[in-house]
Every structure is written in C-alpha cells, then in structure tokens.
Amino acid sequence: MKTLPSTDVLIIGGGWTGLLMAKELGSRTPHSIVILERGGMRNPADYVLGMDELDYFIRLHMMQDPSRETVTVRHDANERSLPIRQFANFLPGSGVGGTGEHWGAQVPRFQPDCFQLYSRTVARYGEKRLPEDHSFQDFGVTYDEMEPYYAREERTLGVSGKAGNLRGKKIEGGNVHEGWRSEEYPNPPLKLPYFGSLMETTAKSLGYHPYPNPTAVNSQAYTNPDGVTRAACAYCGFCERLPCMIAAKAQPTNIFLPLVQKLKTVSLRTGTTVRRIVHDTAQGAGKARGVTYIDAAGEEVFQPADLVILASYTLSNNRLLMLSKAGEPYDPAAGKGTLGKNLTHQISFGTAQAFFEKPLNRFMGAGGAGMRFADLDGDVFDHSNLPFLRGGMFGAIMTGQAPIATFGALPRSIKARWGSAWKKAAMEYYDHVGVVAYSGEHVPYKSNYFDLDPIYKDSAGDPLLRMTINWRDNERKMVEFMTAKGVEVARAMGAKEINPFPGYQDYDVTRYQSTHIQGGTMMAPSPDRGVVNNYQQHWQIPNLFVLGASTFPNSASANPTPTILAFAYRTADAIVEKYLKKPGALA
Amino acid sequence: MRRRQFLVLSAASVGGVLVYSLDRRASRLFAQDKATQPLKIPLRFFTEDEALIVAAATSRIFPSDESGPGAREAGVVIYIDRQLAGPYGRDRYRYTHGPFDENAPRDFGYQGKATPSETYREGLQGLQGFDQLSPEEQDNRLRQIEDTHFFAVLRQNTIEGMFCDPAHGGNVDMIGWQLVGFPGPHMSNYNDVDKHYGEAYRPKLVSLEQVLGRKIPVSEDEDRT
What we know:
The structure holds 2 protein chains of 2 kinds.
Chain A (H helix, E strand, L loop, with lengths): L1 E2 L3 E6 L3 H13 L4 E5 L15 H6 L12 E4 L7 E2 L33 H9 L17 H15 L7 E2 L2 E2 L23 H12 L5 E2 L9 E2 L5 E2 L21 H4 L1 H5 L4 E5 L2 E8 L6 E8 L5 E11 L3 H10 L17 E5 L1 E9 L14 E4 L18 E6 L5 H4 L13 H10 L3 E8 L8 E9 L5 E6 L4 H20 L4 E4 L16 E4 L23 E3 L14 H19 L8
Parallel strand pairs in A: 1-14, 2-3, 2-14, 3-11, 4-21, 14-24
Antiparallel strand pairs in A: 4-5, 6-7, 8-17, 9-10, 12-13, 13-14, 15-23, 16-19, 16-22, 17-18, 18-19, 20-21
Chain B lengths: L4 E6 L7 E3 L5 E3 L2 H4 L3 E6 L4 H14 L9 H4 L1 H10 L30 H10 L9 H11 L3 H15 L11 H6 L27 H5 L13
Antiparallel strand pairs in B: 1-4, 2-3
C-alpha cells in the first residue's frame, strides 16, 4: 500500500462539521489539512436541477448511495437484521456539504435541560420515574456553557427568527419556553405562508404560545461575520431534500466551502472512501497514525496524520470507529463497553393530517417556514401524572410541496387507492392538506444501540452498521398524547376531516421520520461511560476527535444541527487554544 | 440487441392529439392533419404487447374520465418504458446484496431480489391479453393483483408518470400539473407566499426546460448519449 506524505490534520468528511473545522483550523493556524470526502464535489450551478422532483426528491440524487453502503435494522437483539435497501425513514447525504446540502434548515436550540437529562429528571421526579432499561446520562456540559457557541453558529448561518427569552426576559411572539439567549436572531422571521397563519391564530386561542420557526434560511440578504454574503429566500418551494440554488438556505457549500477553498493549507480530496483509522492503543496510550482510504482512482493508500478528526454522519462515525477497533464495542448483555451505545432517533410525525375547505397554495414555501409552539416541549409541563417523560414541539410548516410525493393524501373515509373515485378525490384534496407536525425527544435505552452486522456487507466487503432499535412505552404513550393534542389543534384550525396519526408500533424504516440519528460515540465525564470527552476527544486516542450528533447521549425534540455546530466550534476552540499548544488529553 | 419495438396506436386512442416523434420528444399532433394515421412510438424496454398492457393498466389506475385526462394522455407508458430501460430499471438506487426475503415484514420495505424491470417482466406475464378486456374486466383483473409488489410499483410509477417534469416523458403538456393546480418550478414566490390566504393562487404553468431555456439531464439517459 502506498504511503502518502504526512499531513498535520486529517478530516474525514466534507460536510457541516468537517468544513467548519477546516475553516477554523485553516484560518487560525498554519497547519496543513487534508479533507477526505466520500462523495463528489458539488457545483451550485447545477442546483437548479433539484427542481426536477423525480430525480431529486423521489430518486434521492443528493443522498448516500445505498447500492454501495447502507445500514441494517432489527427491533431487538433476538431478531434477525434486514438492510434498509432504499433510504426512507432517514436520508443521509453524500458529496461535499453532506446532509447539510439538502437539510430542512430548521434550527431550534436544545432545551437547556436536554444537556442534563439524567440529573434534571431525577431531581424533579425521582429515580423511580426513569423508564425501564433506560440509559439516561448527562452531557457533562451545560446549556449555559454552550450558549456563546449557539450564538456564534446562528450568526454564521444567518438564522431567521424571533427571540422569546433574551437574557431571561420573556418576549411575547418568540418562544417563551426557550433557553436564554444572549442576543436576538441575526435576521427577522421568514414570511408566513397561509397554513402557518392558521396555526398562529389557533394556537393562541387555545392558550399556547406560537412563534415563528427559527430557520437557517435568509429572510433578507445577509452578510455573516466571516464576510459571506447570501441572498434572501424566494420561497420557490423546492427546499427540503434539495439544495438551494440561490444560497438563501445555509449549506456547508455556501457557508464554509468558499472560505476553505481560499486556504492554501487545505486540500480537499473527493471520491475518497476511508476504510480504517490506523492507531496504536497499546498500554492505554493510544495514538492515531492516520487513515487508509480508497482514492478516486480505486487504489488503497495510507495517509499519515498527526491529528485525525472524524466528521462524518452518525452512521459512518460509528462504523469507522468499530471497523478500526477504536473504542470498546458496547455489549448490552454484559453491560460493558460504550462504542455504539445510546442510539436515538428524534421522533417526528404528523399528529393530524388535516383536510381544509380552502386551498393552501402549498407549492410556495421554504425550509422551516411556519409557526411552532413549545408549550408541550421537554419538561416545560409537569409529567407527574402523565404516563411518559419529556415532550416536543408542534408546528405548521410549509416547505413547498410537489405532486409525486404528495398526490393521493385522502381522508381515511375514502378507501379507493386507484381508479376514477380515487383520482377524483385525490385531485380535490390535493391542495387542501396540511399536517400539524410534531418533533419529540427520543430518550436513550440500554438496548437501542449500534454494532456491526454479521451478514450484510458494503461494496468493499466490510460489514454494514447494524441498528438495534425499537419504541418503548415512553415513546408510544407520548405519541398517543401528542396526537390527541394535535388533532385538537387541527380541529380548531377549521379542518373538515382529520386523519390522526395511527401511533407508534415497531420502528418503521419505510415512513420518513427525521434524518436525526444520534448517539453511539457519546460524550461522557469518564472513559467507562462514553467514547469521547466533552471536547469530543476520544478517551483512548487523544489525537482523534469525533464531531457530530453521534456524540450526543440523547436526542432532543430540537433538530440537532445547531447543537452539532455549537459543539464543533467549542472543539475547534479547544484544539486551537489548548490541544495544538500542548497535544494530549483535554479532559 | 433486440429488434426495435414500437408502440403502435391509432391517433384516436391517445385522444387524437399526442404523438412521440423519433427523437423521443413528445409533441402535439393536430387532429385534422394526421388523426387517421397510426402513431409509432419507439420503445426502449417494453415489447409492443407489454406496452399495450401497461398503457391499459395505468389508464385504469389513473383513468381519463369526466374529471379530466389521465395516464393515457400524460404518456405514462412512455415514462415507465424509459425508466425501466435506465438505471432505475436496473435497481441502481437500491442495496442489492443478499440474503433477500420476499416475505419480510412490510415495515422493512421491499426485501425481494427482483429489479423493477424484472418485476414488470414477470408481472406482465400474468396480464397477457389485458388490453383486450373491457374496462370492467380490467378493473376486476387489477383487483386480483392489487396487493402484489408488482401492482405497488406500477401504481407508484403511474403517479410519477402523471406528475414528473415533462422532460422524463410523462406529464405531457403538463397535463398532470394542470389537474391539481401545481404550477411547476417557479423561481420566486417572494411576492405571493404571504398573500392569497384562503384563495387558490395559480400562476402560469412552466416546466424546468421552459424556465431554463435548455434541455435538462435526466437520470434515465445517464448511460445514453
């Protein structure tokens, strides 16, 4: 195997966190940096083609190619696993920018107590209320420590929204249940589509506190602190699952890539598939030596590096560490090991599919454009007499709707699925369907985890990652409770007919849920409790850092990207200010 | 190389207005000119017999009726023919390593081995003579297979062919979009997104090629030049 000239820093993954780290280290230090990205370079001039619903929204041209690598799923350790043959319930990206190119750009912060799930739950309700089989664990970092990093990522992305809690002062019209903010959002809220306006009026009349959904889509032209200028959103309605053609939606290729490309110390190599992180772990003093990867020409090479930063999506973060034997694999039966533990998948579903008399003009919209309310979020409300812990946010959001994906939504009273009766009803209801959406927390359990699949392999012959995951009483009862609340909201909004969400049975890989798979390489205060410390530094291999939601011990109701970016900034600061001056363990 | 196959239709059978020229671009044929001539549509995947069955079946799934045109006018059979001849037909977008399991629980998605093109070849074997049946007989026949994987794929592909960008060969003249009031790719709704509350706003329909003023690359042509 050919050995390439050594680099100071090697970054695996050219998405949100990989490019953020390249930009921070490349502009603040003289070190040489190599970024390895599995997919190809993206050309934003081609992004207008995302308006072709068939190839992009349906055939998923922005997504990871499952024919080369996917994951397997089983509901419990006694079941055989089956591969996800076509991505559907979550949609990992590929290519420079990664999942950040096609994301929905909804950017709420985590509720403060999400960082202390174990201690705050026990303090309020006692140990006895923790669910059976739970693996609750605090992050070891508090919201107060993270707040400046949240403010930084919001300024960088140019988030549009309205504050509801400025340094403890509650502000009507913003989210009064959010954690304190040091400053207002950098941009005012997006324009409000009709469906969101229905939610705003209705939620208020029901005593809730609706607020404009914070989104990383520009409500006006905006120049961020790095000097990157981006246009205002045009509400074309081709947003989620697609890249923005005018860069109004913040994406790694318009936020960080232009800055990274100007840095002479950074080299970005696309079409490169990392196979192993090469490391010595003898005598407990681990050291990463570099990585082996298959280059764009198909040749496997060794790239030595002094510092390795693993910055891919949750799935690849877990899989690469497992394939590289970097960390002790989690064994739920023995209760040993941590690598793969605390797999969570943010809950997200439509509580009520609501059919309205009036048309909604659903083709107009933008990522996150609409209203939310958080009165039933986290631990905002008392759970003493409820059969579940935690909660989530309701929303009425119009991202734009195209007809292949949405034709055929009908009230359950209509049974036909083809033929004249079906066609006529589906045409009539087409622009009259709105969804009262809900995003909720998925708490961690000992028996929801990742490991390597014993049977299914990728195109290079390496084992696929396996997810062992299923819903428990806490999720099923939360979903039931929130569905009833959502149906009340839909009825008050004036829906003629409503399809309530049928509820959670077994984990379902065919229904889109959210692309927010988290955990497996979680941060912890000590090596026996997690894979990385709270600087996202590997406990056994101090010159290896792991970025992304794989380091989160639990999901929040909030979408994870802002928190991922906030932790990446915190880690970047720690590497520049501490680690590079004196390489070694930061905690 | 198989013998070149054409779908031969009387102009009347496609409403007298639709024809596919040899460069595979759908275009309008004015009835008074050539309505009596048969139309020869070049096929990429189907045999002519298969194409006639698919045209008949998709037009029972999405019929032409008093509520408006359907799969026949939208050219759904041509859309499906191109898809099956391209990467989709070969399962380019799916993980295709075994073991497979035709009987896996539905919440794991389709776990069988067949590619979409194989699914059609086999499914159409069971529908021989379908295009010769009366509409009622056709509906009865479809009801017998409506729980099969083949029917699920056929139904999904019919919806795709009704509403895809016309560059893919279906949704001819944006007929599907007209049915539901979808205006196609509009670059900006900036001045309208927060207006028209409760009223239908229906801007003029445009296709992506009309917006861009050039042909767009489509996946079914990926391996063609």
